[in-house]
Design goal:
Blueprint: H1 3-20, H2 32-41, H3 47-59, H4 77-87, H5 94-114, H6 126-141, H7 163-178, H8 186-189, H9 213-223, H10 230-244, H11 262-275, H12 285-298, H13 314-326, H14 334-337, E1 340-341, E2 344-345, H15 356-368, H16 374-383, H17 399-410, H18 416-429, H19 444-459, H20 465-481, E3 493-494, E4 498-499, H21 502-522
Antiparallel strand pairs: 1-2, 3-4
Helix pairs in contact: 1-21, 2-3, 2-4, 2-9, 4-5, 4-6, 6-7, 9-10, 11-12, 11-13, 11-21, 13-15, 15-17, 17-19, 19-20, 19-21, 20-21
């Protein structure tokens, strides 16, 4: 197939993707935790809705007995506990009973992970959610109707290994209690873990609580069909119905980890185009310009959040600022600089763990604006691992994601040795088939991250012939596994659990392929 034909196909695919950005609140993979919480706390009265959710939860259990991606062990406790508590009420088949016994053993085996110092890349709200789920398990197993829980399925989990996490959670709860959270703010996203009163003032413009299906289900449970909250309850129930449409599953009660996410989907997808250097490609301007203009009007002095009804954050703001600067829009950089908390940029003020990928994206945006970014370079160098990679990010489990964005932020720096060490890490971890992936097989989005990083370094004149061959092998893998107009789903982004924002991942895939293809045509 000729390069020009490949470009035509990719552009048609990209045009369709750009047109759809933000539609219906965005697309997101289904969530074990949120689905289990809705099933447990506020299931629909229809059996036709309940059992598809039960069956889906059962189908998501891993061979080792737990739920969640095995590549991120610490992210698995919350969805596993939630699934156990939900499925214990629907344990009418021997296979389900046996699966729950395996899940109980899995949690026991996991205790060793929690006895170690806590890393920075804990899932969002983990310090609140896991103690909350442990309390829920204890409460259910010590209430009057304890006979409802078979003896063999009672968890009896020792709390000592979670001591550090529980202490961190108590600290976080005290910070939340010091000031009353408002609707559409970060603490409300984990409302279920720190509140029990159904305050109607916490309902945001989505109709739900904190843009979270789990928090909304917990709020509805607390509301207990209070007639004084009739309108708010109806709105929250409608929120759950709409949220279920955002996943790749078609059954009600199967929920995403967050919804709606239109600005997150829009800003990050367009930022992927920036990293690929294709934002100004002529054939996409008619569909791209309305999206960028819409993003421009949505960026406020306080920044931008993952929806217009949720508080601004540093990550979405950095992506939006980078896109607008690259598109030639004037942007007041004070909007981005307000998220700097030296030596890092933060997503939310008061967060306890930094994010190297967020800082890299913010620094890249400032670089695009012509700002001297040299004072941030050492932060990246100090965070580099011995193997040359950057990992341990709080928003994504894949070191390829973090390494890609740091290399883009560093490509104009004098730290050539550090970049060569990162390229060496990519060389070592490239699979025999040419792709990359942290789970011992190649995945589309992680291969796209690696290809984008290498293409950026190639354009900066930092690759030798062997490196270019590595890039070509990765590009060939993407071409072989590319399916026009069909999005793949691999979960490596971090929230309450690991998830996949399908349109964003697709934007990275198409940007990587187009960046290399167009680069080859220029040679």
């Amino acid at each position: 197939m000729s390069m020009s034909l490949i470009v035509d196909i990719l552009i048609d695919d990209l045009r369709a993707l750009i047109r759809d950005l933000g539609q219906n609140g965005g697309l997101m993979s289904p969530s074990v935790y949120d689905t289990a919480q809705v099933l447990r706390l506020y299931p629909t009265p229809s059996e036709d809705h309940v059992w598809p959710a039960v069956n889906w939860l059962i189908s998501q259990q891993q061979a080792d007995g737990g739920w969640g991606n095995p590549s991120m062990p610490l992210s698995r406790a919350v969805p596993t506990l939630a699934a156990i508590l939900a499925l214990r009420r629907h344990c009418q088949r021997r296979s389900t009973f046996d699966g729950l016994l395996e899940a109980k053993r899995f949690l026991r085996r996991q205790l060793e992970y929690w006895e170690k110092p806590l890393p920075d890349n804990l899932p969002v709200g983990m310090e609140l959610l896991l103690p909350y789920m442990l309390e829920e398990a204890y409460r259910e197993e010590h209430q009057d109707d304890i006979d409802d829980v078979p003896i063999k399925l009672r968890l009896n989990i020792p709390l000592a290994p979670y001591r550090e996490l529980i202490a961190l959670g108590e600290h976080k709860r005290s910070l939340i209690q010091q000031k009353k959270p408002r609707a559409g703010t970060a603490p409300v996203y984990s409302w279920e873990a720190w509140a029990s009163h159904a305050d109607p003032e916490l309902i945001d413009g989505s109709g739900g609580i904190g843009h979270s299906p789990a928090a909304t289900a917990a709020w509805l449970f607390a509301a207990n069909r209070n007639p004084n909250l009739r309108n708010q309850i109806a709105g929250a129930e409608n929120y759950l119905r709409q949220a279920s449409l955002a996943t790749s599953e078609s059954a009600p009660c199967i929920m995403p980890t967050a919804w709606p996410i239109p600005r997150f989907e829009q800003s990050f997808s367009l930022y992927a185009l920036v990293t690929g250097g294709i934002l100004d490609f002529p054939s996409i301007q008619d569909v791209l310009k309305p999206q960028i203009a819409d993003l421009h009007q949505a960026l406020k002095p306080r920044g931008i959040g993952f929806s217009d009804d949720f508080m601004p954050d540093g990550d979405d703001t950095a992506a939006a600022v980078a896109v607008l600067i690259a598109a030639g829009y004037p942007v007041d950089l004070a909007i981005l600089n307000q998220f700097e908390r030296a030596p890092h940029f933060v997503a939310y003020h008061g967060e306890l763990q930094p994010s190297i990928s967020l800082t890299a994206r913010a620094v890249h945006a400032l670089d695009l604006a012509g700002v001297d970014i040299s004072r941030w370079w050492k932060i990246f160098i100090d965070a580099q691992k011995l193997d040359g990679s950057w990992s341990g990010d709080k928003w994504n489990t894949s070191w390829l994601y973090t390494t890609c964005h740091v290399l883009i932020a560093l490509k104009n720096s004098p730290y050539k040795t550090a970049m060569k060490e990162a390229v060496a890490a990519l060389q070592v971890h490239q699979h025999p088939d040419g792709g990359w992936g942290i789970i011992n097989r190649s995945t589309t989005v992680e291969t796209a991250y690696a290809v984008l990083a290498l293409q950026n370094l190639r354009e900066a004149g930092l690759l030798d012939n062997d490196d270019i061959h590595m890039l070509q092998r990765g590009y060939n893998w993407l071409c072989i596994h590319y399916r026009p107009f069909r999005m793949k789903e691999y979960q490596c982004w971090l929230n309450k659990e690991i998830y996949c924002p399908q349109r964003i991942d697709r934007a990275y895939e198409l940007s990587a392929m187009l960046a290399v293809t167009l680069g080859e045509l220029k040679l």
